[in-house]
Amino acid sequence: MFLRSNSDQAKTYKDEGNDYFKEKDYRKAVVSYSEGLKKKCVDPDLNAVLYTNRAAAQYYLGNFRSALNDVLAARKLKPSHLKAIIRGAMCHLELNHFAEAVNWCDEGLQIDAKEKKLLEVRAKADKLKRMKERDLRKARLKEKKEQSQNETLLQAIKARNIRLVSEALGKDEDSASDGPTEIFLDGLSSENPCGARLSLDNQGRLSWPVLFLYPEYAQSDFISAFHEDSRFIDHLMAMFSEAPCWDSEQKYHPDNLEVYFEDEERAELYQVSPGSTLLQVLQHPRYSVKALTPAFLICVASSSFLKSYLQGKRVHR
């Protein structure tokens, strides 16, 4: 009885895999090359070809990491195997390993300086590498600029003795450690969910994103830039020059409204004079700014809703 050697069996699987590869049936090609490798023949060149061919099939299946692993195995057996180097460079390119792709191309071009695929991959990888480095530099510069702006904002807030509360931490930032302060600075650099953010003008004055809440109708208004020197009455007059659609009774008039803020820590309400500026209120010893967005309750004075809403609450007028 004639027994075929492991090398012969491995070659048969290699040829079978090549046929599947030509038919673009890459999954079956992978299976055939794998069966050939299982024969563990002693021919390093044949095994290198099996690894390289399987890498090619894996590449076309989109399994770039598996393909790269096969390429590395092939090069251990045959370091100068040009097809393995080409396939490895292509895998690195697909995996966005641009510097590695360039290095692999350079190794291959030392073997064949005119290899078109290597020249093509190298040009593309080098261009993408430079773009990635440029984008990284821009990102670092932007981060540095934002950090500087955040530090300036933080100093401006501290100089005004305004209490800040991190929604995530549930505690005053003034009494927080270095860790929470960093979290606060990160918060400054991100936009408010409505697209606004705390800002500092050329005169060193702050403008805040502010929420007006109308509990009677479960409605709200968002002011993207409430200048700290602006008065509440100025905003109320602009917002209620015409009755909002939800005010069916048309009872919300600038001269008929009361403004409050809530001290959540003590569950108490403080009435705000409409003639007050935002800065005056933010500097109140019991006011805390949560999530960098001051919030205020707006109700109709002497309304039945307000009487019911305030019942049982301690109110400072």
UniProtKB/TrEMBL annotation:
Check the record and name the Gene3D superfamilies matching this protein.
Tetratricopeptide repeat domain (1.25.40.10)
CDD domains for the chain: CTWD_Cns1
Query: Where in this chain does the record put each Cns1/TTC4 wheel domain?
Result: 201-298
What Pfam family is a match for this entry?
A: Wheel
Please give the SMART domains that the UniProt record associates with this protein: TPR (SM00028)
- Locate the coiled-coil region(s) and give their ranges: 111-151
Keywords (alphabetical) are: Coiled coil, Repeat, TPR repeat
Presence of keyword Repeat: yes
Give the family, as the similarity comment puts it.
Answer: Belongs to the TTC4 family.
| Protein name in the entry | Tetratricopeptide repeat protein 4 isoform X2
Species in which this protein is naturally found: Microtus ochrogaster (Prairie vole)
Identify the taxonomic lineage of the organism of origin.
Eukaryota, Metazoa, Chordata, Craniata, Vertebrata
